[in-house]
Design a protein that fits this description.
This protein has 4 helices and no strands. The chain is mainly alpha-helical and 136 residues long.
Length: 136
């Protein structure tokens, strides 16, 4: 069931590489080199422009890379949660794929679960158990 996604594959490899300690140390070394070369270039506008342009480009590209990684991780977590709901006896299958609902539908579900939580806290305060499985 493996499909080819060149952008996804590249983003995955680059994000793994960017998250390593050696990459961080390389970035620190580049900044240190830039600082050391300051006196050689008289702390000129061009010298400053080099680091500003470089960091802007890297930041711009990293935004897309981070978003891709976050989207992939979120989708995987949602699928795992959906599987837990599906496989748990007594769980409400209506909660599967909840992230695809509009805000109004999510608010309705949230209100039901907030009421359940409030009732459970009230039972705890009265010294009762809160481990039953009431319907939302």
């Amino acid at each position: 069931m493996k499909r080819t996604d060149s952008y996804g594959d590249i983003a995955k490899r680059v994000s793994r590489w960017c998250g390593r300690q050696t990459t961080f140390l390389l970035a620190i070394a580049i900044i240190a080199l830039w600082i050391v070369t300051g006196p050689l270039f008289g702390f000129s506008d061009t010298w400053q422009l080099v680091i500003n342009t470089g960091t802007t480009i890297v930041t711009f590209l990293m935004v897309f890379l981070i978003q891709n990684t976050q989207n992939r991780d979120t989708a995987a977590i949602q699928l795992k949660l959906d599987e837990l709901i599906r496989a748990t006896k007594g769980a409400h299958n209506a909660l599967l794929d909840l992230e695809e609902l509009d805000e109004a539908a999510l608010d309705q579900f949230r209100a039901r679960y907030e009421l359940l939580a409030s009732d459970a806290r009230g039972r705890l305060q009265r010294g009762e158990a809160d481990t039953d499985t009431p319907e939302p």
